[in-house]
Amino acid sequence: MSRKIIYHTSKPELLKTPTGITGLDEITEGGLPKGRPTLICGEAGSGKTLFSIEFIVKGATEYNEPGVFVAFEEKAEELTTNVASLGYNLDELVKQKKIRIDHVHIERSEIEETGEYNLDGLFIRLDHAINTIKAKRVVLDTIENLFSGLQNENILRAELRRLFHWLKEKGVTAIITGEKGDGQLTRQGLEEYVSDCVIFLDHRINNQISTRRLRIVKYRGSLHGTNEYPFLIDEEGISVLPVTSLKLSNEVSTERISTGIPTLDDMLGGKGFYRGSSILVSGTAGTGKTSIASYFAKHCCEKGEKCIYFAFEESPQQIVRNMKSIGVNLDPFVKKGLLTFQSSRPTLYGLEMHLVAIYKLIRKIKPTTIILDPITNLITVGSISEIKSVLIRLIDFLQKEQITVMFTALTLNTMVNENTDEGVSSLVDAWLMVRDIEYNGERNRGMYIMKSRGMKHSNQVREFIITDKGLQLVEVFLGPDGVLTGSARVAQKLAEETTEALRQNALNRKDREIERQRQVLQSKISNLRSEFESVQEELNKIYTEEELKKEIQKKNKDKLTSLRKHDSINQSEISKNGK
Fold first, then answer.
1. ∠ at Cα 348 (394, 26), nearest 5°?
2. Which of 41, 69, 410 is nearest to 194 (CA)?
3. Which of 16, 60, 383, 422 is deepest in the core (most CB within 10 A)?
4. SS3 of 195, please?
5. Could you tell me what percent of the chain has a pLDDT over 90?
6. What is the rounded CA–CA span in Å between residue 521 and residue 384?
7. Which of 82, 168, 150, 152 is nearest to 110 (CA)?
8. Any idea which residues carry the catalytic annotation?
């Protein structure tokens, strides 16, 4: 009987080299393929060189992997100066032998197309640079310059194959940058030769708004994000936001946090919002949306928690000054670092870039609460559907991080219309609406809790009052013409107090009359009791006299009887003696 032998083979795992670029390693699920070349392509100004230099610097400083940067366009001095604004000191890293920068100058007029054209000279220089610092990473920027004067495609293809094969044999993780071509990713069709990983960078302008996006065209042997991802270039380098890969699988909290307004907490069951929830405060202009948001931020900071206030309409100085008029001083929290303002016009970035900036600041500060005031200003840089898409991803991200967010939105009319709230009203956990109530020549504010998921809440309207002492919600009065607010409410309240005073006075008057009647009756009862006692006493006197008389008569009768009996005895004795 033959025995069947089963061989268990483990699935080979693709080794990866982390880039150190914020967000990119998450999208690529670990980084770029280790020991293989990666193509970074895009138009001029899309960020290819910066992407590559950050890959080299982060590898040297964070992962102890020395790197070689070969530039075909910029000189070493120019490259060092250009990236100094990002805080990278290339000269110092070169002195420490952590990186090596090599500039290769190619002059088109000096290139002759002969059958002997090859890259042996480049291989020698690269090999020397790699061996000198024991490099693990290599960048070739921009490789088209090597072949800018060549028209012979056979030579071009042969040397490209040699180059990529040589890089793989050296075992270095390489990045090759290429300019976008017509109808293809690169001018020389490099994507045909780099079959391991291709990343495309895009810099587009829509309605005068700049947006940068990254897309992984292919990544052989590895799962990766397939969407377009926005990325930001600022003073800290490149940040990629992998928001489009988020799923609805977040944990939720049962902890409740106060709104900062006690009377509003009462409308929410006396406890406030859930931590990690999303809140929308909508209303027409001047209804106090920013005041509500500032109260919420102040309360969070008072508990020692951090808060970020993203303002798209007012500067931080304006908000701090204006809030002092209602008794809210935000200055101390700003100075302590608990409250951070990020103020900018929506047109500074595109929608995706705003999302990246928010994501990056949250990662840096790690707040428990953020405020976006107002989201309706974003309509200037995107359509309602685009804004809704961005807000959905932002809410999902914040829920994952258990960060409470409050949005404010400007309602353009008094109709309850989700479009005026940029469609976010159906996405949030709680929705507060503040609207104008005009009556009797006055404009007052009324607050409604349109919804609050997972908790009991009031379904009644409250008058929203803003004074120099703060914010307050008071119960409204219902009159013949509807809800009464402002002076009408005060007048109605005074009228009710007057009516109550008159009623109380009438009751007091009746009480006094009753008291007088009671005292009269008490007096009559007392007199009748006295009369009764007198008659009773007289009757008792007569009864006593009669009893006394009867007793005396009985005694007299007994006495007479006794006397008679005695006289009879005496008479009998006399008779006996006479005989």
1. 40
2. 41
3. 422
4. coil
5. 20
6. 82
7. 150
8. 73, 313
Decide if 81 contacts 71 (C-beta within 8 A). no
Instruction: Determine if the peptide bond prior to 142 is cis (ω within 30°).
Output: yes
For 53-111, what is each residue's pLDDT tens digit?
A: 999 999 999 999 999 999 888 888 888 888 887 788 888 999 998 999 988 876 555 55
- Number of Cα atoms under 13 Å in the Cβ half of residue 433: 22
Structural domain includes residue 426? yes
The structure's pTM equals: 0.65
User: What is the three-state SS of 144-158?
Assistant: HHHHCCCCCHHHHHH
- Residue 451, domain CATH: 3.40.50.300
CA atoms of 123 and 163, how far apart (whole Å): 8
What is the end-to-end Cα distance of the chain in Å, rounded? 177
pLDDT in the model for residue 490 = 66
Quote the CA–CA distance of 135 and 130 in Å, as a whole number. 5
Same domain (yes/no): 120, 163:
yes
263, 335 contact by CB (below 8 A): no
Q: For residue range 435-469, what is the model confidence (pLDDT) as tens digits?
A: 887 767 777 888 889 888 888 888 888 888 888 88
C-alpha 395/C-alpha 277 separation (Å) is 9
**Model confidence band, residue 376 (pLDDT cutoffs 50, 70, 90):** confident
CA distance 342 to 501: 55
Co-location of 221 and 272 in the same domain: no
